[in-house]
Design brief:
alpha+beta, Mitochondrial Import Receptor Subunit Tom20, Chain A, Methylamine Dehydrogenase, Chain H, four-stranded antiparallel sheet, 7 helices
């Protein structure tokens, strides 16, 4: 078995994507000409690079343990990756095993019960005053009353690659999902227990040689308009698209030069906003599909955008800057600087007064249009913060009697809930064991869903910080979302699965 350089490059590219380093993946993909490799990403299973490395290590271990006479000597410890790719280490281990074997053979009356090769002598030593026997790991399983039973989960199969995103229609129980297989799908999750959920496949195609062919590029973002009759998608192929609920392609928006990382409808539903690797953000006229205005103020890829009003928005970038722009104004109306690494996500609070940002610098910051420096610099996470969400609560919302809360999800495996008025962390949610990619508040603000690469979706009480429900899927969770009634949670995963948890009567 051998690999071409194109195949190795693609495995590294896919590993970077799966690990959340989307911008590094993009840069690596450009420099290694991934798009010209003719490798169908849909055929590459999740975690392919790690699986191949693991099998290679196992093969190398097996190779070392075979003696010159063809018999096997048991390894007392596993190889590390560094060991396996360092020839002198491998040779030294092989020599040591052979020498050990010869010594055992030479020892008169030697037997496994005396010589310790089977570990008996070693275990007796550690039972005394030597190295302590490792204690059993803490049982992280949630109790039966918290664990969501299988009959309350509907697993949706169809995608052929990772499912990066999912979003509920605001009016009906249609769940949209977007994947690395260059499709988005719309799943009908209306209550009809007698039938399998219907799925519409939205194939993202490009013109090539006068024909439409699959783009073979990831669908990176999707968003429903306020009425729920149109779905917008953004793709690594550089196009945004508008679809109807029956899966018909209504418009193709082509002005970006490279992948689109984020895309949002404004509340009125007349404009779509997108952010691209080409360092620009674009406001599109949804009715005509034309570019209304393109903003070129970032000096590096734009990673996220969020509307403040129907005509003004904020954008953030790997250039560490945040700009607030308004339609028909040719310069930012406000710029915020303070992060010391790329800014991954930004979100306006429900009133459009405060802007939250999170970064690879491990901080999240709160900004106000009334001042240049941040209102709060919140430092508690120990690794990169991937995303943030505001609760749908506080003055002027449908839940005015509940305090406004900000949730942050980090690669340190924790979620934190923040009282932004006081600038303090009120709860740290610690049940996840791998990076947390997504958080979402229930419509009433009483619960928070979180999804992690530990394959778990947890539902928490925002009042107490306690774990209320938990479900373990079959792949790392990229996105979680609530339906408009707060009765169902959707989630999308790295193994191509999408699932829906029915929280009624739990």
């Amino acid at each position: 078995m051998s690999f071409t350089s194109d195949e190795v490059n693609f495995l590294v590219y896919r590993y970077l994507q799966e690990s959340g380093f989307h911008h590094s993946a993009y840069t690596f993909g450009i420099e290694s000409h991934i798009s010209q490799s003719n490798i169908n990403g849909a055929l590459v299973p999740p975690a392919a690079l790690l699986n191949i490395l693991q099998k290679g290590l196992q093969y190398t271990e097996a190779e070392i343990t075979i003696g010159e006479d063809g018999t096997e000597t048991r390894l007392t410890e596993s190889l590390s990756l560094i060991d396996a790719v360092t020839p002198d280490i491998v040779a030294a281990r092989q020599n040591a095993h052979n020498a050990q074997k010869q010594a055992i053979k030479a020892e008169p009356g030697s037997g496994s019960e005396q010589n310790g090769v089977d570990g008996t002598t070693c275990s007796a030593a550690s039972a005394g005053g030597g190295a302590a026997t490792p204690s059993a790991p803490e049982n992280m399983d949630v109790d039966q009353s918290i664990e969501i039973p299988a009959n309350k989960a509907t697993v949706l199969r169809g995608h052929e690659s990772e499912v990066f995103i999912c979003a509920w229609n605001p009016s009906t129980d249609l769940l949209a999902s977007g994947s690395g297989d260059s499709t988005a799908r719309i799943w009908d999750m209306s209550d009809n227990p007698a039938t399998t959920p219907n799925q519409l496949v939205l194939r993202h195609c490009i013109q090539k040689g006068g024909a439409e062919v699959p783009s073979n590029k990831d669908v990176t973002s999707l968003d429903w308009n306020c009425d729920g009759n149109l779905l917008a998608t953004g793709s690594y192929d550089g196009y945004a698209r508008i679809w109807t609920t029956d899966g018909t392609l209504a418009s193709t928006l082509g002005q970006h030069k490279g992948p689109i990382f984020a895309l949002k409808w404004n509340k009125r539903g007349n404009y779509i906003l997108s952010a691209g690797v080409d360092k620009t953000t674009i406001i599109w006229d949804a009715a005509s599909g034309q570019c209304t205005q393109q903003f070129s103020f970032h000096s590096a890829p734009a990673l996220d955008v969020d509307w403040q009003t129907n005509q003004s928005f904020a954008s953030c970038s790997t250039d560490q800057c945040i700009h607030v722009c308004r339609l028909n104004i040719d310069k930012p109306i406000k710029s915020f600087q303070g992060h010391t690494n790329e800014v991954n996500a930004i979100k306006w609070d429900p009133q459009g007064q405060l802007l939250a940002s999170c970064s690879d610098d491990m901080t999240l910051k709160i900004w106000s249009m009334k001042q240049d420096t941040c209102v709060h610099d919140l430092q508690a996470h120990s690794k990169e913060i991937y995303t943030i969400k505001w609760s749908p609560t506080g003055p002027g919302t449908a839940n005015p009697n509940m305090n406004l809360i900000l949730a942050s999800a980090s690669f340190d495996s924790t979620v934190r809930l923040w009282d932004v008025e006081r600038g303090v962390c009120i709860h740290t949610l610690t049940k996840h064991t791998e990076p947390v990619y997504s958080v979402a508040f229930s419509p009433d603000g009483k619960f928070l869903a979180s999804g992690s690469f530990d394959k778990c979706v947890h539902i928490w009480s925002t009042q107490t910080g306690g774990l209320v429900h938990s479900y373990k899927g079959t792949g790392g969770i990229f996105e979680v979302c609530w339906n408009s009634r707060g009765t169902k949670v959707g989630a999308s995963a790295s193994d191509g699965s999408v699932f829906v948890l029915d929280l009624r009567k739990l």
